[in-house]
Design a protein that fits this description.
Helices cover 68% and strands 0% of the residues. By secondary structure, it is mostly helical.
């Protein structure tokens, strides 16, 4: 079968024929799901995941103190997506992915971040996209996809030296819900980091989406998240209109042809591509690159 003759559900058929407990198959499933069938939805779910992190005051205070989103937010967002892409492109255990995770660990090493916060942030990166797709995806996720996504996430977390991680999607969802029930609380830092992130999103959105971007972003928040971030309530008609528009998009996409090539994100920070030496907070780059060279020499 040529790419031109592929049907809308052919990627799903391939996914169901793969074994999510096999590492190579696991990585192929994540690629088909995240870069072929649901690339835009994964990005939106990841954006919501960012916002959920800010509902935890200890996390938002650190981000607020470093001013990464306030001073260099577009680069901060691009860099986070780059780490995700490096793991997906050639597999989470590939040399390329491990080099990216090593750099991520060096960045995090500058801060005292407890294991439970790492667990929670990692949980948002899988629960955010899955919940988005369940509500706004053009087809339901298959159980095989959930197994692969959970195993992929856990392996990525292990490479980050995070301990005590769940082994199933249900475990990640329970971790996220219990952590938020205990830790979600308003703090002025939550609101400052949220506003800075919304400005980043508006600046990188297509021009036709920029008008009303902030209000639509808030309309997509569930009530506990909105309150924790200190955002004002939006009119019911707007919340319903945004929800309806996304559901109609999902129905329309069922009649679209499948993506024939993996989705390539545009990174405003790196319009001509990137090198790993460019990834990381601007103020840390010299030190990070020096330590990376020392690590390779040793």
């Amino acid at each position: 079968m040529t790419p031109w003759s592929r049907g809308r559900y052919d990627n799903l058929a391939e996914i169901r024929a793969l074994d999510p407990y096999d590492d190579a198959d696991r990585d192929r499933i994540v690629t088909l799901t995240g870069r072929y069938d649901f690339p835009w939805d994964f990005d939106q779910g990841t954006a919501i995941a960012f916002l959920r992190d800010y509902g935890i005051p200890s996390i938002s205070r650190l981000l607020d103190r470093t001013r990464q989103f306030e001073d260099d937010g577009i680069k901060r967002y691009d860099d986070t997506l780059v780490f995700q892409e490096e793991a997906i492109d050639e597999g989470v255990d590939s040399p390329r992915a491990k080099a990216a995770v090593d750099r991520l660990n060096r960045i995090h090493g500058h801060y005292k971040i407890p294991n439970d916060e790492f667990q929670y942030v990692l949980a948002t990166t899988i629960v955010g996209p899955v919940r988005w797709i369940r509500r706004y995806g053009w087809r339901p996720l298959d159980p095989v996809e959930l197994v692969a996504l959970a195993r992929f996430t856990t392996r990525f977390g292990e490479l980050m030296q995070i301990t005590g991680l769940p082994e199933t999607y249900e475990g990640y969802e329970a971790l996220l819900d219990s952590y938020e029930a205990e830790r979600f609380a308003f703090d002025p830092a939550n609101k400052r980091v949220t506003e800075a992130t919304i400005r980043v999103g508006r600046a990188t959105a297509p021009w036709y989406l920029r008008l009303g971007f902030r209000r639509v972003s808030i309309a997509l928040m569930d009530e506990p998240l909105r309150l924790a971030l200190g955002m004002e309530a939006q009119p019911r008609w707007l919340v319903r209109a945004v929800d309806l528009g996304l559901r109609l998009r999902a129905k329309a996409l069922r009649f679209f042809p499948p993506r024939r090539a993996p989705y390539e994100r545009h990174h405003p920070t790196y319009p001509h591509g990137y090198e790993m030496s460019q990834i990381g907070p601007a103020k840390m780059l010299d030190e990070l690159n020096r330590k990376t060279k020392e690590h390779h020499v040793a």
